Amino acid sequence: MSYTEAEALYSSYGINTEDAITKAMNKAISMNCWQADDVVGFDNPNGGAGNGIQTTGNYPGRARNFEELKADFLKAASLIPGKKRLNLHACYAIFTDENPYVDRDKIEYRHFAPWVAFAKENNLGLDFNPTIFSHPMVKDGMTLSSPDPEVRRFWFDHCIASRRIAEKMGEELNDKVLNNVWIPDGFKDTPADRLAPRQRLKEALDDIFAEKCPHVIDSVESKFFAVGVESYTTGSNEFYMGYAATHPGVYNLLDAGHFHPSEHVSDKISALLMYFDYIPLHVTRPVNWDSDHVVAFDDETKEIFKEIVRNDALDKSMIGLDCFDASINRIAAWVIATRNAEKCLLYALLQPNKELKEAEYAGDYTKRLMLQEEVKTLPFDEVWREYCRRCDVPQGRDWYATVKQYEDEVTSKRK
Question: Can you give the CATH number for the domain in which 255 is found?
Answer without folding.
Answer: 3.20.20.150
